[in-house]
């Protein structure tokens, strides 16, 4: 899959070349070329990204269920009052131990998902950065009539750019929301510790809190960068910077070409 993503990042560049070759008279089936070079990589990337999205969403649902179960312990203690105190403490202790093990299993599941999808996410984000920058440059060049894209080519460019941007936004959103839900468990444990004042419960809550601190649920691309809002900010800043540089180079290059053409016309006129 990673070997497919790497060339897919430059697929729209190839589409531009194919369109140019077709306009120069080469016999090409543009529909087949666009399908195998553009839509197939988009489909594969989308399916893989949605697999990752669904797995992270599954992890989020498990954490939400865990947090709801912890909150029920506090409500159950308040409802039951002081009757059968020993039995209630034993039940709360058993549930807390079980929930701590469940949290550990969720963290291990997250690590397995990250180990499998980490390289793909890394290559996908890097590819998306290049694709978005290049396609925005193509759109700019089309607007100033330097490149002449037909309507299907422009639509393909917009679809490709929007797909890359939306996939990154979706995965960053689900990863950030999952991490925020995990952080809520700490507050629930504090509530349990204050509601059930007992040395054994206090000890289990301390162990659980220590586990939350040392075994955090993190989402990253092979450790190079985290999937959070800072990633979106960094991508937007980088795309803007490189796009401005490319546009400035493009405009200066056009000015040089025009000046050379004017000099050539002037020299021909004097002759």
In sequence order, what are the helices and strands, one letter per element?
HHHHHHH
Q: What is the number of beta strands?
A: 0
Q: What shape does the CA trace take?
A: elongated
Q: What class would the helix/strand composition place it in?
A: mainly alpha
Using the CA coordinates, give the radius of gyration. 28 Å
What is the CATH topology descriptor? Glutathione S-transferase Yfyf (Class Pi), Chain A, domain 2
Biggest β-sheet, characterized?
none
Mean pLDDT, nearest integer?
75
Total number of domains: 1
User: Helix share of residues?
Assistant: over 70%
| CATH class wording | Mainly Alpha
Can you tell me the CATH architecture?
Up-down Bundle
Q: Into which percentage range does the β-strand content fall? A: under 5%
By DSSP (H or I, 4+ residues per run), the number of helices equals 7
- Poorly predicted spans: 1-10, 20-24
Calculate the terminal CA-CA distance, rounded to whole Å.
62 Å
């Amino acid at each position: 899959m990673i070997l497919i993503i790497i060339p897919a990042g430059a697929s729209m560049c190839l589409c531009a070349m194919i369109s140019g070759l077709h306009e120069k008279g080469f016999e090409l089936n543009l529909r087949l070329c666009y399908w195998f070079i553009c839509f197939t990589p988009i489909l594969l990337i989308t399916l893989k990204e949605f697999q990752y999205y669904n797995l992270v969403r599954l992890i989020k649902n498990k954490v939400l269920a865990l947090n709801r179960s912890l909150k029920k312990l506090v409500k159950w203690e308040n409802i039951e009052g002081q009757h059968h105190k020993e039995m209630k403490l034993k039940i709360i202790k058993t549930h807390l131990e079980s929930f701590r093990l469940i949290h550990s299993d969720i963290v291990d599941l997250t690590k397995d998902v990250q180990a499998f999808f980490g390289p793909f996410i890394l290559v996908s984000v890097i590819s998306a950065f290049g694709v978005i920058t290049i396609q925005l440059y193509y759109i700019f060049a089309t607007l100033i009539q330097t490149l002449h894209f037909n309507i299907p080519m422009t639509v393909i460019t917009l679809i490709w750019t929007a797909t890359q941007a939306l996939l990154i936004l979706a995965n960053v959103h689900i990863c950030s929301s999952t991490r925020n839900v995990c952080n809520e468990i700490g507050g629930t444990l504090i509530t349990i510790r204050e509601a059930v004042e007992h040395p054994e419960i206090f000890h289990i809550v301390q162990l659980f809190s220590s586990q939350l601190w040392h075994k955090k649920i993190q989402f990253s691309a092979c450790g190079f960068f985290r999937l959070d809002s800072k990633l979106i900010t960094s991508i937007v800043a980088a795309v803007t910077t490189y796009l401005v540089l490319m546009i400035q180079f493009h405009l200066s290059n056009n000015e040089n070409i025009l000046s050379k053409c004017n000099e050539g016309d002037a020299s021909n006129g004097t002759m």
